Amino acid sequence: MNLTLYVWRQNGPGDRGRMERYEARDISEHMSFLEMLDVVNEGLIAQGVVPIAFDHDCREGICGMCGFMVNGVAHGPQRGTTVCQLHMRHFKDGDTLYLEPWRARAFPVVRDLIVDRSAFDRIIAAGGYISVSTGSAVEANAIPVPKEKADLAMDAAACIGCGACVAMCPNASAALFTAAKISHLGLLPQGQAERDRRAIGMVLQMTRERFGQCTNMGQCEAVCPKNISIEAIARMHRDYISASATGRGGKPLRVEQPA
Amino acid sequence: MTLDSKVPSGPIEQAWQKRKFEFKLVNPANKRKYTVIVVGSGLAGASAAATLAELGYNVLCFCFQDSPRRAHSIAAQGGINAAKNYQNDGDSVFRLFYDTVKGGDFRSREPNVYRLAELSVNIIDQCVAQGVPFAREYGGLLENRSFGGAQVSRTFYARGQTGQQLLLGAYQALERQVAAGQVRMFTRHEMLDVVLADGKARGIVTRDLVTGAVESWAGHAVVLATGGYANVFHLSTNAKGCNATAIWRAHKRGALFANACFTQIHPTCIPVTGDYQSKLTLMSESLRNDGRIWVPKKKGDARKPNEIPEDERDYFLERKYPAFGNLVPRDVASRNAKTVCDDGRGVGPGGYGVYLDFSEALDRLGHAVIEERYGNLFEMYERITAEDPYRVPLRIYPASHYTMGGLWVDYNLMSTIPGLYVVGEANFSDHGANRLGASALMQGLADGYFILPYTIGDYLAGEKSGAVDTGHPAFREVESDVRGGVARLLEIQGTRSVDSFHRELGKIVWEYCGMSRTAGGLQYALGRIPELREEFWRSVRVLGTGEELNQSLERAGRVADFFELAELMCLDALERNESCGGHFREEYQTPDGEALRNDEAYSYVAAWEFRGTGNAPALHKEPLSFEYVHPSRRSYK
Question: What is the mean pLDDT of residues B172-176?
Fold first, then answer.
């Protein structure tokens, strides 16, 4: 099949950026979306044009490195699928596709379709863990975890940190990402000791990173490649409110952006 | 050069305890006066960086991805082994040790493997405490499964995403130390060389992948946790960014490279569909528990699988190995699939695929049971191939997956460069000639959480504490080499893309140093690879500049190193005149086609010393002895 692509090209944070038109010729339906871009890039290199930069690594939908907007939808039209696992059979000959980077104030564009998602790491650093230094763990079966809880925790823990939730949210909120980690750890008995402190630290960090507020639009859930439920956001709000109301969260951790 | 493995003497059960007591300690108040550089943030790197920081050392941690959570450990599906014996089925530290030495086809060091088995139980405790959501039974206790043909159920798992959950545990521990100020994390930085001062590893030189800045970093010790080199094959199950640059450049600075030819081919991957293919996707080998592998008996049979009657199918693994059937080890399953495809009986586009058929299991167990066991895998397969495995058999073919070889390290995980440590898949240590399923995660975490933090303390205790800086002239020299290397790639301005070279190199290595090897084929490859390498340096086209984010430039540097490493792999394979584990030399097989080891001549670790690009490296041998597990021939008949 043959396709027309309009791709966001931007040399760096200082560049204004613009959409450029490219033709994708002889694309096989068995190609993944990123393989289609590989083919386009090989063509550009042959013509002496600097290839399109896009983030990707595992190409099997688990590392969370890839992601951009395809016709205004994060990761493209197939639900529960990262763009690296999206295959060209979902498109037809003659289609026109618009590829743009995640757009959010907290995710500045690095180049072309690549954005800086380091704000996510800082949200995790602000409390997204259980403090257990190596060596101080108890015997694993000493902490029974009801299967239902373990399964719910796993559902939330499946987040790959790709940022599609932020990109799709009209407010550019990172609520689903933050809530997924708060849910994963807050559902487990091991996570109880720091539950209040974690909720306060992560939520405040999220705001500090200039992500927007959650207004229950639900678009995050619709594009999440791991189908994480917005129930997580409800858990986050409950933990945050109860910790702030009681003052149990203590002094929150503040993670500075490196200079 | 004599290789001192520094293996402790005395009974194997007490070796590690004894060694830990012998280690010198760094006073708690002095730990903050030492800086350790950790390169790589996968299971081994993240766990090492977090643990060293918890101990009080200053840690500088580097990764090429945009976040430490992306490292390729994240993609491991199956699980992690541990000798907990929760299932009361007769498992023990000794049995896990025994299985691992035997599975490695007697080419690993016994005391290393024993220590790995011993520490496996601590890993599970640590990960559960961190909140890793392992599968549980209704009583709330941990669930286990049997994996990769093991006779006991010792594998812990988190759905099909065990690697992801273990890595997130280590990543979170790492971020906790970032928040505490003990770790400085550098993402989108690629290590391009190691710096030696006074014969010791004293730092590294990196390139900032966003700005192109080449910078030096100093430390009292350097830890490489940069993973394996399976991407030398171009098509592999590794992430696109996985590369050998860090270990290869350390090799060129004096670290010996061991057992380069020991690479693992995983039998159950989705076959190649065309020339544009960029990677291969692994399907968990748990599929072999219920799926039956077959090809048509007739060559070039173009009928649809469901139209081929039962008596015209060849269930070749069940036929050749009645006892183990479809559950033979990875190397045996892979090689047999290649044989039938080379014979013209392969299926699917290009003829390089075999069927993995669930129709019998669906009849026996029902749709619901199969869906519960394999639903997510079937879904993934359908997403990629648009074929429904409930209706038509899956098509699978082997793909390069893991590399047992790597930088040589002693029992303390130190390479032949003092102060340069190597952990996880990047080192050669524990898997011998073949790695068992669910053992890679175990080794990465054992190295990072429980071994390196002790062993490095012994080294640091002998080093002068206090500030280290990049003022030593050695840093200037290495920086200038690195800048020169980057400039050279940009100056060529040739006609061929980096990927076209990588693809061509990969085909050569796959053909002649892949699933089965011959002296003639390896000699051909050893002639062809240098020619292609020279063509690369004459006619590669890297557009853009070095002072910006330039993905072609990043790849070009990695492919340049793969060229040199590919040559060493072929040489190592040619020198090893025997078949063992993942290394199958067609000349050395039993009359019925099984691997024929030669313990008298080849019971050693082959550690190679670099002597200049294009020059023959020098071989150093570390003899292996087996006191506890006596070498026997593997038989799966």
Answer: 98
Interface predicted TM-score (ipTM) of this complex, two decimals: 0.98
Task: Judge contact between B426 and B38, C-beta under 8 A.
Answer: no
**Domain boundaries of chain B, sorted by first residue:** 12-264+402-461, 266-400, 473-598
State the first-to-last Cα distance of chain B, in angstroms, to the nearest integer: 43
Domain hosting residue A15, numbered range: 3-111
What does the CA dihedral B8, B12, B16, B17 come to, rounded to 10 degrees?
-110
* DSSP annotation string for A17-83: -EEEEEEE-S--TTSBHHHHHHHHHHHHHHTTPPPPP---SSSSS-S-----EETTEET-SSTT--T
Domain count, chain A: 2
**Fold of the domain spanning B266-400:** Flavocytochrome C3; Chain A, domain 1 (3.90.700)
User: Cβ distance B287 to B377 under 8 Å?
Assistant: yes
Share of chain B above pLDDT 90, in %: 91
Selected residues 133-152 of chain A with any CB under 8 Å from a CB in chain B: 133-141, 143-147, 150
- CB atoms B386 and A89 under 8 Å: yes
pLDDT in tens, B370-414: 998 888 889 989 999 999 999 999 999 999 999 999 999 999 999
Q: Any idea of the CA torsion for B275, B276, B279, B285, to the nearest 10 degrees?
A: -60
| Residues β-bridged to residue B38 | B61, B223
**Does A193 lie at the interface with B, CB-CB under 8 angstroms?**
no
What pLDDT was estimated at residue B593? 81
Q: What pTM value is reported for the model?
A: 0.97
Contact by Cβ (8 Å): B399, B235? yes
CA distance, residue A151 to nearest chain B CA (Å):
8
Alpha carbon of B406: minimum distance to chain A alpha carbons (Å): 21
- Nearest CA-CA partner of B404 in B426, B385, B384, B389: B426
pLDDT in tens, B317-352: 999 999 889 988 888 899 999 999 999 999 998 899
